[in-house]
């Protein structure tokens, strides 16, 4: 193998290592998002309990039972919205816990996203440097051999040969995947920051659906990326 071939092989292996590291962090981010979905659904569940309608407004049978057994204890229970005080405190505590865990998710996810961006830039910088070195050598050799002014055409040919190799494919995938994950994180961040005790049940249900569907992620592209790692 000539010097040029050895250099390209070294670059490809380096980018391949970076890509594997990139995808392992994608897997960690996916696991984190799955846990985040659980916390969001927990918030939704506790919010449903907190905002449920008083039973006497939804059932004639319950209303009849209340009217025929109007003890002080039952009156207190009804006035509390059919919730015991300790249950209300526990419910609010769980809501707060889910919100805090979701906020912690944002911090951890942002760290992983920053690491993904760094790895993406590392791969791109390596390839750009290789292209610059490669095209400079090609142009110099071409001018020395032919003494013409057609260096622009030679530069394009040299760049094309590098752009088609495996390292560029991986760096392109990293760029696209990072963009998708950043969009997904932005959506999740908006959801989490909007959560409060007044968030409606229907809105929370939509939030849970969006989180589960991952609308910004192309699953086919992710499968293709994992084939690079396993292959």
Automatic annotation (TrEMBL):
Q: What stretch or stretches form a coiled coil here?
A: 102-133
State the UniProt keywords alphabetically. Answer: Coiled coil
Database matches in Pfam families: DUF7795 (PF25071)
DUF7795 domain: which residues? 12-130
Please state what the protein is called: DUF7795 domain-containing protein
Would the keyword Coiled coil turn up in this protein's UniProt record?
Answer: yes
Q: Which organism is it from?
A: Dendrobium thyrsiflorum (Pinecone-like raceme dendrobium)
């Amino acid at each position: 193998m000539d010097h040029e071939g050895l250099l390209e092989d070294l670059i490809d292996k380096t980018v391949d290592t970076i890509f594997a590291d990139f995808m392992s962090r994608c897997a960690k981010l996916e696991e984190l998002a799955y846990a985040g979905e659980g916390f969001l659904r927990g918030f939704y569940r506790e919010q449903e309990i907190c905002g449920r309608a008083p039973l006497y407004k939804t059932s004639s049978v319950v209303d009849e039972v209340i009217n025929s057994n109007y003890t002080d204890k039952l009156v207190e229970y009804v006035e509390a919205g059919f919730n015991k005080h300790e249950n209300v405190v526990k419910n609010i505590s769980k809501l707060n816990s889910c919100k805090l865990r979701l906020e912690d998710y944002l911090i951890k996810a942002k760290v992983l996203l920053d690491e993904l961006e760094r790895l993406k830039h590392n791969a791109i910088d390596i390839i750009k440097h290789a292209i610059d070195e490669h095209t400079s050598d090609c142009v110099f050799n071409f001018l020395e051999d032919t003494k013409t002014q057609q260096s622009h055409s030679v530069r394009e040919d040299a760049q094309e040969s590098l752009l088609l190799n495996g390292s560029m494919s991986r760096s392109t995938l990293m760029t696209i995947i990072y963009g998708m994950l950043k969009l997904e994180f932005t959506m999740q961040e908006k959801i989490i920051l909007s959560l409060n005790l007044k968030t409606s049940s229907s809105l929370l249900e939509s939030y849970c659906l969006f989180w589960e569907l991952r609308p910004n992620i192309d699953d086919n592209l992710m499968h293709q990326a994992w084939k690079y790692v396993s292959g």
